[in-house]
Design brief:
By secondary structure, this protein is α+β, with helices and mostly antiparallel strands. It has a single domain, classed as Chorismate synthase, AroC fold (4-Layer Sandwich). The protein is 25% helix and 25% strand. The chain has seven helices and 18 strands. Strand 8 and strand 9 form a beta hairpin. The radius of gyration is 21 Å and the shape is globular. The two termini are 25 Å apart.
Amino acid sequence: MNTFGENLKLTIFGESHGEAVGMVLDGFPAGESIDIDFMKEELKRRAPGMSELSTPRTEPDEPIIISGIADGHSTGAPICAIIRNTNTRSSDYHPEKPRPGHADLTAQIKYKGFADYRGGGTFSGRLTAAMVMAGALCKQTLGRRDISIEARIVRIGSAEASRPDFDFALRKEILDARASGDSVGGVIECAATGLPAGLGGLMFGGMESRIAAALYAIPGVKGVEFGAGFEIAKMRGSEANDPIRLEDGRLFTETNNSGGINGGLTNGMPVVVRCAFRPTPSIAREQRTVDLSKMENTTLRISGRHDPCIVPRAVPVVESMIAFCVMDALCGD
């Protein structure tokens, strides 16, 4: 399914080397002020070709609004927006030799050899541009409700944000990987602040369930955790529980090991979530694969234009999907 959401429906469409990628946001409230320039700035944060740390593929990423926005406001109709693909090199891709770590092989099996293999087709990170367009709309509306969604990189390879020289170490990890024909992964942490308590639902409608599902839709995400995450397994209950306090009529918790969510419902504390990104699978080193046309073992070197690390460009994507989940929950509250 390419559609996600309970009250607010987000549909993502397009392929990496097709005519365009785009999104439809159905159920967005009418009368919301929309700043398209803000959307453009968000897209620039994600755009390729902006630094030596990303792929050299450059795209203008100019959003084209098809419907749902008129005179600077949402109309209540489904909002549809696209971004045209203008800089593609499909000759870099060979469907008979699936790239290890990619969806090349599984997509060809699932869709009986008809999946669009160019640039990864619909499995490409290129489609995250559509996620950012939707996120830009949600973030503007949430901002007027004093809700903020902000993400940051907390790890690249072996370099952690706690290091005083993290910015230098981050660049070194990425550039060293690129120089050796390899790639590197990392972790992004996002905090949603200003959320009211009680947002979410039961079982599969809980905020953790919604946010985790949304984040796993981002290509390259292989792990999601909330609050203390996997570290909570090392704690005793007396350490893991967040003591509840009342001051000046306000309820809060002294710690936030639960990441702002209890029982799938927000508790008024910041919702804190981290997601781990795998190293970019497309690397220049020789890798073992199978030639599907000959059905024999072989090797390949990937020569296309790829990011040595997708994490820096993924920061606004993570923010966008969490913003959508919060907006979705608010629309049903």
